[in-house]
Write a structure and sequence with these properties.
The protein has 2 domains: 1-38; 111-337, Glycosyl hydrolase domain, family 43 (Tachylectin-2, Chain A). The protein is 11% helix and 45% strand. The protein contains 1 helix and 21 strands. The strands form 5 sheets. It has a 5-stranded antiparallel sheet with strand order 1-5-4-3-2, with no helix packed on it. It has a 4-stranded antiparallel sheet with strand order 6-7-8-9, with no helix packed on it. Strands 10-11-12-13 form a 4-stranded antiparallel sheet, with no helix packed on it. The longest helix has 37 residues, at 2-38. 38% of the residues are buried.
Length: 338
């Protein structure tokens, strides 16, 4: 009986040793397999894990791909010194970032790198982004590339040289190209009242026609403007984007600050042209699209034909993320999230 117990104990011990060795071998093989599988494979990120402001989504229908860009912390050594792209086929999972413009390659000390947009025109991709030499006026530059992922080269300015301007967007009407941009509220001669202006672009997008520059409306024209503006926080105009609805009505998305229960809150609102043209009277929306501390939006049609609006929220660093809603444009003169 004693010999039998010893034999059973020996067999049990040997089983444990063999099982442990097998597990160690399997673990090593598993780690090796994981390493091999990850070689050359892009890591998928959920949209809500990407820290980005001023979100812009380009829909590449030819390749069934979405590209996301915006104001982002995209270098470990410094903030916002360049523009990058993320790629997706479903708006949920993304790969990247892909660097498309790097600040250290410009030949001068840059600042900002804000709010890039990419538009396809005449077989080229045009990037509109607010950046430039440190210490100078903010201005929106135009860069072009044969492919959305680059390489990009400088074309010219989308805003006047002698004005602090930002957030220009491209708009075409009756065969003419326009830059719709924000004249900064920070300019003291504006009485801390930002403006949204339009200036015609040259047909080859190499710059503007300064004599065509004109006012569309002011930040103080919004029914949602903040209380008691001044040098600390004026009537801000931010993030323009043009859109025509199913009834051929012309809208402009833009962002500003409003006062809610004594707190200044960033919002996404819009205005509508009363004649469907750029030269119409711009009627401000009574109800903002989004008023929960988020904004700087665009409208795009998804690959499945769904109309969507994207913007960043909250407007609090470092928590900004890209938010996407479906857009309802079924009612004349009104835009709504759904």
């Amino acid at each position: 009986m004693v010999k039998m117990k010893k034999l059973l104990m020996l067999l049990s011990f040997m089983s444990v040793v063999i099982l442990t060795s097998c597990n160690q071998m399997n673990s090593t093989q598993s780690e090796q397999t994981t390493t091999n599988q990850n070689e050359g494979i892009e890591v998928l990120m959920r949209l809500n894990s990407i820290h980005i402001r001023d979100s812009f989504i380009f829909v590449d229908r030819e390749n069934n791909t979405y590209y996301l860009t915006g104001t982002a912390e995209n270098k470990e050594s410094s903030n916002n010194l360049g523009f990058v792209l993320y790629k997706s086929d479903d708006l949920t999972y993304w790969t990247g970032p892909i660097s498309i413009i790097e600040g250290d390659s410009l030949g001068y000390e840059p600042q900002d790198f804000w709010a890039p947009e990419i538009h396809y025109y005449n077989d080229k991709y045009y990037l509109f982004g607010t950046f430039g030499p440190k210490g100078e006026y903010r201005r929106t530059q135009i860069w072009s590339a044969p492919h959305i992922e680059g390489p990009y080269q400088y074309e010219g300015l989308a805003t006047p040289e002698n004005m602090g301007s930002l957030d220009a967007t491209l708009y075409e009407e009756d065969g003419k190209l326009w830059s719709i941009y924000c004249y900064e509220w920070l300019e003291p001669k504006n009485n801390w009242d930002g403006q949204i202006r339009a200036v015609e672009l040259k047909s080859d997008l190499s710059g503007i026609k300064p004599e065509t520059d004109h006012l569309l409306f002011k930040g103080s024209d919004s029914p949602h403007k903040i209380d008691n503006p001044g040098p600390g926080l004026g009537y801000i105009t931010d993030g323009t984007y043009m859109f025509r609805n199913r009834y051929d009505e012309l809208f402009m998305l833009w962002s500003t600050f409003t006062t809610v229960r004594g707190q200044n809150r960033y919002i996404l609102t819009y205005a509508k042209s009363d004649n469907g043209k750029l030269d119409g009277n711009w009627i401000q929306a009574e109800t903002p699209l989004y008023d929960v501390n988020g904004g700087h939006g665009i409208i795009f049609e998804a690959l499945d034909g769904t109309l969507k609006v994207s913007f960043h929220a909250p407007n609090t660093s470092p928590y900004e993320k890209t938010i996407i809603y479906n857009l309802d444009d079924s009612t004349r003169g009104i835009l709504k999230l759904k």
